[in-house]
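Notes continue from the previous slide.

Worked example: a multi-chain complex. Inputs as given:
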Amino acid sequence: MNAVSIAAPRPARVAPLVLLGGVLLLVGLPLVVSPYQSFQLTFVGALAIAILGLNILTGYSGQISLGHGAFLAVGGYASAVLVHNFRVSYLLTVPIAGLLSGAIGFLFGVPALRLSGIYLALATFALAVATPAVIKKPHGLTGGVQGIVLPSIDPPPGLDAIFTAEQWLYYLTWAIGGALFLVGWNILRSRTGRAFRALRDSEVAAVAYGINLAAYKTLAFGLSAFYGGVAGALLAMATAYVSPDTYAFPLSLALLVGAVVGGLGSIAGPLFGALFVEFLPLWAQQLSRAAPAVTYGVVLILVAFVMPTGTAGLLRKAVVWIRR
Amino acid sequence: MKKRNVFVASTTLVALALAACGGTPGGQGAVTKDPGITDTTIVLGGTHPTTGGASVYGTIGKAVEAYFGYINDQGGVNGRKITYKNLDDGYNPPQTVQLTKQLVEQDQVFAMFNGLGTPPQTAVQPYLNQKKVPQLFVATGASKWGLDYKTNPWTIGWQPNYVSESIIYAKHLLNINPNAKIAVLYQNDDYGQDYLDGLTKGLGSKQSLIVKKQSYESTAADVRSEVATLKASGADTLFIFATPKYSGQALGTANALGWHPTVYLNNVSAPQSFMNAVTKAAGPAATNGVISSAYLKDPADPKWDTDEAVKLYRQIMAKYYPSGDVNDQFNFYGMGASWTMVDVLKKAGKNPTRQGVIDIVTSLNEKDNPFVLPGVVIKTTASDHFPITQSQLERFEQGKWVLFGDLIDTRGQLS
């Protein structure tokens, strides 16, 4: 898969303009759409961060994770517990959630070194299945099966005249998301990103070129889990509630679906993937009241057939076709 | 190519984002009327899982739709037809939050009705109360819906709560066998936990009678090893606080192991149709003598065959929900709750308001709901938000539930 086209280092005069246009659009959207739609787009932003994290691990480094929801759970609960039990400012909990989740991801990456392909998929699947049960155990900390109800997020004093609660949450999420996308983009263009891709394409060849397999594999896990943790914290804030049911296996599956539909190994892919994950289930319900799951399944199969390289891959092909 | 690639990517993103937002933005609503009310319609919203692990409950929402369809064909309520916008949240709280916001802000529902599941409804409770949108007759038996009425005055449940149901079993056991040795199988979630809390409350100072507890996850393949462990404890009484699938396994496994304790089975697991299935699969010895409780009639129980409500229920199922299982107690439950909803709307009069509806909901004295057992009164006051508190014990004898004793009322025991 040609994964570098967007991230190509060639200087371009139009690209900054397009980027600026994109930023202006993201900034302007909440001013024209309804509060509910801002709220939905907040979820898209948080999901995009999570899917970007998964993309770093699966799309770039070639390690399949069926259990990424677990890292969102760590982030979500870290944020919720800090806000609820220790009265920490919710803004402060976002980096803490990311770092904690990143550390756990890094540690999980160590035993995962011994696993690859389908075995790693199974191990991470087990992680996803075990997560809700693990959350329930420390009842005093996590609220057990009842979960934790969080205060809804309001703009800080002074800004509440400018933003509605929905707008504030939206800007917060997309600002953090934008920063994380820039960081991800830079990492993936750098030596580290090349090492990730080399590992994905051939471990033997990569090691022969002197790439430290253990270091980069665990780094990919840690980095990916960091993104997952931040996304988890943002999702918990938007929902204003965390419970074990939030982090059941379907969440992990949805993230993987998003990563594949968006385009593995593409930096813009997670945006499309997040839109897909957020809106397709809603559309499927509107389209067919009787069997939304069937609609969802059919669309997913079609997408896999028509866009085997994801949305980003399809766009890339379309551009090539237009230029001919 | 690269520039254009980025350009196409971002324009597509824009297009997708705009398409996603294509729905009509929620208006500010009429000045004089609450949202969701027109001259000819009243819009209610709800969420039930029709996909995912809890999809077995999804049928409740369809039964509600069927009942409202029947009411609409009878002319509706006070000249208005009920539009019930029921969405699938997959029992996933973040999804419930989004769908509920959609229903309130975009679809402009008048009230939420019969949203299912404790975690999903907990997630939307602060939002709905902040917006002063009635969250009516939620489909969960958690005790919190009745207990937290001061902080959440816009929320109310309907069915008897799990804690009180457990207390009834505990009291009965202490009566018939004060020295019982109790084993408990419970689902490790809010639902199982509530039942367990009720049992310990009901036993009071006799909590030490519990010799063994085993929990299982709602994703578990089976509960055989749990049941074997419970048997090994030497208990002579088994409490099953589970969902039907696992309850059936537990009854079958205990029987196969030659263990025949006194069994208390929670109401959710006790519909006649499930008991028939277990009896058929595991033999009559597996179910004979099981004790449970009921507050609803049961469409699969032959003793209600000539009952007017059950007959009406069958007609509604045949006409408005023909793909549904007429013997599924969940469908009957959905219509029972809908009956109360329609009753409330009738009493709210020609010009219902959200505040007016809440006032009626908190001063119910409904003696004529035909879906509940004879004698059960659906009653609330400003300081008592537990609509149904009465139920009756029943024992499974020769393939049929036999009610025994009087209606037991737990009103006032929790508040």
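Summary box: Chain B touches chain A through 56 residues (CB under 8 Å). Chain B has 14 helices and 13 strands.
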